[in-house]
Write a structure and sequence with these properties.
2 copies of one chain form a homodimer. Chain A is of the alpha/beta class. Chain A contains 35 helices and 33 strands. The radius of gyration of chain A is 33 Å and the shape is elongated. Chains A and B meet through helix 24, helix 26, helix 28, helix 29 and helix 31 of A and helix 24, helix 26, helix 28, helix 29 and helix 31 of B. Chains A, B: Residues 415-496 form the PEP-utilising enzyme mobile domain.
């Protein structure tokens, strides 16, 4: 017979899988000898068995009875005793906290007879009948699905009859009458009487807690929080204690340190003559925990010593609930406490200083996501008004500025602006650089605006689809509110909220520190972040490089701790005022025209590379040859079509638009993502890659002549077959051999086409390094166009539980990750010295960084603002994990 | 020391890898005791070593000398002997025949002194000097890269000086003078004298044959013919024999059966007093081989017995070259002869009847590609004029008809028409069905026109890009020629040729037979095809199903031998006059409108399924739920944009176009291939899949009530994660349970997203069958949009040798095939009874069918016209292969 029930004295805090978090911690406190009311926990195994079959597993209730008898003996009270009844609380408690998601039933054991005993024992008749009516109400709703309104109506009627406004105005007689009314409600909705057998009450309560695991709201919460559905909940049955038995009673919650800032010293609230739910309901105002020192010095001292003991025992911030019943302190719950991102860093280093944990353990107490939160400016919470609308929180941080509707306006502005667009494209880049933040009405977290903004570390709210943008009229309309060109808005990319007017912003002290601001060096948070990052750097195995296309980006990346550039995109060097040259290249009618366009681009590309190599002197700079499809450099087909049709309808000459339209039609592709781009362009357009290779080589030679240490590498995009890479390598090596003074330049490839991963052993024969382009690998491996799918059906997919998080945000370890593992393994087998990195956006995602550590990569590369996050997560992945440490998720 | 040189008596026909085809067969004939001039073969190993290092491997020339001494002893002649010189031919010969691609040098050994000996021995001074001048010319061009024109100029000058028109007019003295001129040309271009050392001539000739392996034209040929570049060529050195020494001499080529029809009886040409190259040059007319019986009865008899012996020895049609030198027959070459597709089938069954090979071996003598050729109507070769243009040979067969420019015209026509379009789309389907053939100016082998035409078995020429189609004017212009609406053209989809006017067509007797025409049952070819297909059916392990969407297609598929429908696409049931309902579905503003549209579609879908299930009664019909993106059912964005812009510019109301444009914009996707389609549609559009599942179930129930045996299966497209399939299965099973009288319906999935293959073990837990969609798997695995890439860069990729054949035509076994193997293995591991098939276009491609056999699939599914091909190839894959059988490629 399986063991389904554990007395509190039998469990311990490491049995969370079996007993849930609450049960395991109650057991732990009981074992520590702390004053926990007697009780027992029914395991998650029992819950899973119940949910699978619809009935409790054989023997479970017998075990419950056995443990109940022990409790009765210990307390010298009996369940249902008409003179001195034992009352029970029945509470859910899964492995992971799901606050408010599942059911609790209090005062189990009250019946028409035992209520009399409770009244006698407590000496408070009103309290006894109020408890009884609460049980019927809670039991009816939870166990028997009686609609809550039915009880509310009866309560309201009782108050009207008594001529009182609040529940507390009802006296004993009225409550006795209300109990009768409640029993009628119960019967009317269930067709049976409220159960007068206390054991039946207990059994039904336990089963209803099991069932509450699969309630709609619990399932939704688990999907959001990425908690597996198959875990199930445990059920804790505990003797009731009462904080509402007069002046010597009360209840409170407390933290062992301040969970908001991490400051040392206990922190909490106490409410005299009240139950726990009264604190939650906020019926009366609680007092600071310190006041208990005056109210009840003995219990305060006992509580302080208990909390100190718990913190040392759990080796972390603890969060507790307690009740004082007529002068006796009872511990009702403890757990490792939730805290803000700032508090997490501060507390982790405090615990190191106090000798409680090691630095390795401290790394497991913080997360990259928390560090990310700390790196963005934030609105002052005290001064935040009601948001106008909420869109997709696409790139975190707070920004305030005047509304502008196009890139040129943004560039021309000499004050802070917010660029507002339906959606952005590469042409908006100058405006995005100039603006404080970006707001769009279309696209999701992987839209162009979102990706570029995150790359820049700039706040962005996307897909605010109730915005009606009329760029010509210079207005945005939201539910009747009209915002005009020049009006000030504030956007919060961390929450997706958009505010009218200017909300005060506080810059991130962490970023100020990275940027070299000495004023923040004394800040406790900054010191804590610095210390944990330094430790992470000391132990991590993954290198951290930056995705950076310009010298300023490269400089910032160095300040943020990058050990090189893992992805320098050359397409951004083809935009702006160089676009005209690119159009010439695309429209070239013959070799001469094409060569002329390439010749004109060469010195510009070379100058770009000189600057970047200078900024990254002594560190590798991996330069990707041109990747995007050509149509991205020309106006949109739809715009040109409309322009030409309009001109022709009016009898005008469409002029250059006609020429461009022909070119765009010629190169138009149904699925440009899967078309002529990357290495394919290089193999089809004579001289294109050669121009880029020459620019890189000549830039390196210039730097060498200047006495510097340039370390460029050439990366070929979109390779699917080794023959493609061989063809490019052949041409590049021949060209490099003709240029004087060039340092050694390694040639490698992106692994971003599934076939490249599947044939990595072959490709490694021609590649000195691999860099996973996990964005494209995800697009092709799942068949998801990032431009299309996030907005269209990812929401529905998350609802359906098909995935908990977008695979563009966190790498899909099972599917796409398998391609990564295949390629690492087979690439290294073919060429043991192969360098393997990743330069997709996943390179800066905390969970993905840990995956890449496990997969054995050499480095991750990410946007400059994510570098500290990646450093921290790489350190966490490598840090020794003590068994007792509860990891931050 | 490696052995680099094999005397002919040392080799045999199975050493083709080492000795090349020609060398191995010369050795085989020598071992059989046939009259082969003495000689030896230098191995492909030596060639590879030479090509890798640029010099002959150590010891090779010493071995050549040793074998040469043996030849000299055997013939009692010496190389360079001034009285009776041994002369040598030096010929290339790789593993696979590459006719005319590499070099041959004849008469090696002639020098200023040995030419005199040749004259004396042959008694023909003119012959000797003509041979010498030919050697200088051939050697100069081949070994020393002297331009051919330089020799031509000298020859022309000699003819002018002699006052003769033809080479044959030059006498001995003039040829002696020409030799001097040739030597001057040689010196002028090489800076050295023509080598007078015969051994040096031989060494240089051997090396130049090695080098010719890597000539441009040889490399191009190998790419086209898919011959690996690393094989290298062998070199055959043989004593010269001369067919041009007067009346008792001659030369000929012969086949042991008619290579065009397969008819029994030798077949060939003979030319008296001539060398082999004269036959090729066509200077004089050859006579039928039979005439040799009168000219030289003894040698004719010897030749006949030799050919009979060779055919029995090789157990196949042989092709030979021979020379008679002054009454002595010499065999100069033999090989298994090339033959037409028809001859291949006829000869294979003849050889079975003659007891020479088994039926299993016979299957290896024919190919699916050959059977494919036999299934299309063809133009009468005797009556074919010059083509007007040549486009892409997109779907084989011959068709003649009047030019029409749109689908409606084609449908309305009551005679044969050719549909001429820039490109086609699903709306052209009725016109394509009505037309005899399709001609487009855009798109390649995987364009819509090509894919649909192949599916229908209808001739199609695509991408004829010099066609200037003006549908409004009703004209097509090609290089100044104007074809008008109603003019007759003939198109040959097998060759891509387009002819003006009507060319006579012969229907395929094989297809007539499948279609039940009794008139062709006596045809030798039809009997041979039938017999080999029956044998293939008896031994194959792969089932063959059909891709068919309509009852007529299903009926045809059954006649062609399909054992079920592997892919019934439901999207075709959403076109034509049902499009209006689909527009309502897409434009639906609320649930009620959407439900109304679905309710209207239900009976139409149900009726479709009833018909198909009837046509395939008793066999499985795998029905794929709706797959394509919704925009395919609406007008094109570009068209609507232009229409609306035009209307607005003119102040008109764009009306419904405005509404459609809004909808198209709303659902517009940058990469629809990777967007909202397949299972994603089903999960996002409430009721869509449910309507289809209901239609299938109700159709099956109707058939069951009619006493039939319907076997529908439901296939879910584009699944990437098991959760998607589970969601659909959950809904479908709940729905099926509500409909009475439904037979068991299996639910399975396409495996067409790479992630599905990578997580096949999970997916198999919810799938009763897998069907590989290798088109999409190729698109996503390579990152190739089939609509875009074939026309844009596949040509260049083939040139570069990145692939020899489009991966959309033959499955890429290494990359995409790996996904297939992973999915088969892990799917079966998770569910041993899993059925696994393929329904991409590869299911009908011969080489791919063999891959699917090896990968362990249960069946392939292909368009009806490819079913016999797949049956044959599945049989070939299973057929026992005798070691001695040379397989058809």
């Amino acid at each position: 017979m399986s063991k389904f029930v554990y007395d509190f004295i039998e469990g311990n805090k490491d049995l969370k899988d079996l007993l849930g978090g609450k049960g395991a911690n109650l057991a732990e406190m009981t074992r520590l000898g702390l004053p926990v009311p007697p009780g027992f926990t029914i395991t998650t195994d029992a819950c899973r068995a119940y949910l699978a079959t619809g009935t409790a597993p054989a023997g479970m209730f017998a075990q419950v009875e056995e443990h109940l008898r022990e409790m009765e003996a210990q307390l010298d009270k009996r369940l249902g005793d008409p003179r001195d009844p034992l009352l029970l609380s029945v509470r859910s408690g899964g492995k992971f906290s799901m606050p408010g998601m599942m059911e609790t039933i209090l005062d189990v054991g009250l019946t028409d007879t035992s209520v009399v005993g409770l009244a006698a024992q407590s000496g408070d008749e009103r309290f006894a009948w109020d408890s009884y009516r609460r049980l019927i109400q809670m039991f009816g709703k939870t166990v028997c699905d009686v609609p809550g309104e039915a009880f509310e109506h009866a309560l309201d009627a009782a108050k009207v009859a008594a001529g009182v406004a609040a529940d507390t105005g009802l006296g004993t007689a009225e409550l006795q009458h209300l109990v009768e009314e409640y029993k009628k409600v119960f019967h009317a909705h269930t067709g049976r009487d409220f159960p007068q057998a206390p054991h039946e009450q207990l059994y039904l309560a336990i089963e209803s807690v099991f069932r509450s695991w699969n309630s709609e709201r619990a399932m939704l919460y688990r999907r959001q929080e990425r908690i597996p559905h198959e875990l199930g909940t445990a059920v804790n049955v505990m003797a009731m204690v009462f904080g509402n038995l007069g002046a010597g009673s009360g209840t409170g919650v407390a933290f062992t340190r301040d969970p908001a800032t991490g400051q040392r010293g206990v922190y909490g609230d106490y409410l005299e003559n009240a139950q726990g739910e009264d604190v939650v309901a906020g019926i009366r105002n609680a007092v600071p925990l310190q006041d208990l020192q005056d109210i009840d010095p003995a219990n305060f001292a006992e509580l302080m010593s208990t909390m100190d003991r718990l913190e040392h025992h759990y080796r972390d911030l603890c969060d507790i609930e307690f009740t004082i019943e007529r002068g006796k302190l009872w511990m009702l719950q403890t757990r490792v406490g939730k805290r803000t991102a700032a508090a997490a860093f501060v507390i982790a280093t405090q615990l190191v200083d106090e000798g409680i944990i090691t630095l390795d353990e401290a790394l497991h107490r913080v997360t990259g996501a928390q560090l990310g939160q700390l790196m963005f400016p934030a609105f002052d919470p005290a001064a935040t008004p009601q948001p106008l609308i909420t869109g997709v929180a696409a790139s975190p941080g707070a920004a305030v500025g005047r509304v502008v509707f196009d890139s040129a306006q943004a560039v021309a502005a000499d004050d802070h602006v917010i660029l507002v667009r339906r959606e952005t494209n590469p042409d908006d880049l100058p405006g995005m650089i100039a603006a404080q933040g970006i707001l769009t009405s279309h696209g999701g977290k992987t839209s162009h605006a979102a990706v570029v903004a995150r790359g820049m570390g700039k706040p962005c709210v996307c897909g605010a689809d109730t915005l009606d943008i009329d760029a010509r009229a210079g207005t945005v309309t939201v539910d009747g509110t009209v915002i005009r060109d020049g009006d000030v808005v504030s956007i919060d990319g961390t929450t997706g909220r958009v505010y009218l007017g200017a909300v005060p912003v506080r810059p991130s002290p962490v970023v100020r520190h990275f940027e070299g601001d000495p004023q923040v060096s004394g800040d406790a948070l900054v010191a804590a972040v610095d210390r944990l990052l330094a430790h992470a750097d000391g132990i991590r195995r993954l290198g951290v490089h930056a995705n950076a296309d310009t010298a300023p980006d490269a400089e910032r990346a160095r300040r943020f701790g990058a050990a090189g550039i893992g992805l320098c995109r050359t397409e951004h060097m083809f935009l702006g005022d160089r676009r005209e040259l690119v159009e010439r290249l695309i429209l070239a009618a013959d070799d001469a025209e094409r060569t002329a366009a390439l010749d004109a681009l060469l010195p510009l590309q070379r100058a770009d590379f000189v600057e970047i190599l200078e900024a990254m002197d002594g560190l590798p700079v991996t330069i990707r040859l041109l990747d995007p499809p050509l149509h991205e450099f020309l106006p949109a087909l739809e715009d040109l079509t409309a322009r030409v049709a309009r001109a022709e309808a009016l009898g005008d000459d469409p002029g250059r638009d006609r020429l461009l339209l022909d070119a765009v039609r010629r190169i138009h592709e149904s699925n440009p993502m899967l078309g002529l781009r990357g290495v394919r362009l290089g193999l089809v357009i004579p001289g294109l890659f050669a121009m880029q290779v020459r620019a890189i080589a000549e830039a390196a030679a210039i730097r060498v002549r200047a006495g510097a240490d340039p370390r460029p590498e050439i990366m070929v995009p979109l390779v699917g077959a080794v023959q493609e890479l061989e063809a490019v390598r052949h041409e590049a090596e021949a060209l490099l051999a003709t240029i004087d003074g060039v340092p050694p330049i390694r040639i490698g490839t992106m692994i971003e086409v599934p076939r490249a991963a599947l044939t990595a052993g072959e490709i490694a024969q021609s590649a000195e390094f691999f860099s996973f382009g996990t964005n494209d690998l995800t697009q092709m491996g799942w068949g998801f166009s990032r431009d299309d799918v996030e907005g269209s059906f990812f929401g529905r997919y998350r609802e359906l539980g098909i995935f908990a998080v977008s695979p563009f945000e966190t790498i899909d370890a099972k599917g796409i990750g398998r391609l990564v593992r295949i390629a690492v393994e087979e690439g290294r087998a073919a060429r043991p010295e192969l360098t393997v990195g990743v330069c997709g956006e996943h390179g800066g995602d905390p969970e993905s960084v840990r995956f890449f550590h496990t997969a054995g990569l050499d480095y991750v590369s990410c946007s400059p603002y994510r570098i500290p996050i990646a450093r921290l997560e790489a350190g966490r992945a490598a840090a020794h994990r003590t068994a007792a440490t509860s990891d931050s998720r």
